Amino acid sequence: MRIPPMKAIIAFESVARTKSVNRAAEELGLTPSAVSHQISNLEAAIGQPLFFRQGRGLVLTPVGEQYLRDVTGALADLGRATERASSRSDVEILRVHSSPSFGLMWLLPRLAAFQQDHSDIRLNVSCSYEEVSFTSGFYDIDVRYGHAHWRDVQIKTLRNERIAPLAAPAYLERHPVSSPADLLAHRLIRSETPLVQWQQWFARFGVEHMHASFDFAFDRSYMSLETAALGLGVALESSLLASVMIAQGRLVPVFGEDRALEVAGHHIVLPPQNADLPRVSRFLAWVDQQLQQA
Fold first, then answer.
1. Is the dihedral of CA 129, 135, 139, 142 positive or negative?
2. Which of 36, 240, 257, 290 could form a disulfide with 161 if both were Cys (CB 3.0 to 4.6 A apart)?
3. Cβ of 74: how many Cβ atoms within 10 Å?
């Protein structure tokens, strides 16, 4: 059987990922009718429908789901082959996508250490709160935050992450804290990001009626942590993200580890076919080493 035109396969992948002909058309720089035409040609070549309509969107048929899995690996292989052909033979390129807070607060301060240990790997990092698709073969791994509910990928959860009240040493000198209930009279910083929020934390440690107001509220962890480091209040945040600030003495835990709640918040996600790539396995081993040193 003849291989369908690559432009039809790429159009199919884009529509399958975005679940929209219009969004795929914007992504590919084509008209919606041109994308629809490519999908029709592909379905004619295969001899079976790949999508059916559900409301205003498109849903893959069972044949379409299987075809997407098959072409995903092929497109990834083509991407890697092109990258190898166009790169220096002595340099590997590791493409990492990350949530902004992890990229800025955990990964960026450690880039020099990675470069020193792995000078033959060029690290390309992109940050956003979008969950990237691996179908194009562009990204090797994605660092995601949240509950690990993703399908068809390998998930490596970063260990020893805790949510705890954190503050600048100078703030605690001015405003001593001896118990969780004391914090109700303090300046609290709210972040929308952590898997454990203030109300849950207070309830966990016996403060059932939280009536505290928030002096600051942010939708990014790096903003709440920086605000706490400036001495403007107490943040309930990830010890993993704050590890560099804690090592520098800019932040300290308000209480001991018995008042910290362990979470599985950050995860390295990758497609199964990437697990055996040397650059990926070396990066994962390096991450483990860094976490052990923390």
1. positive
2. 240
3. 12
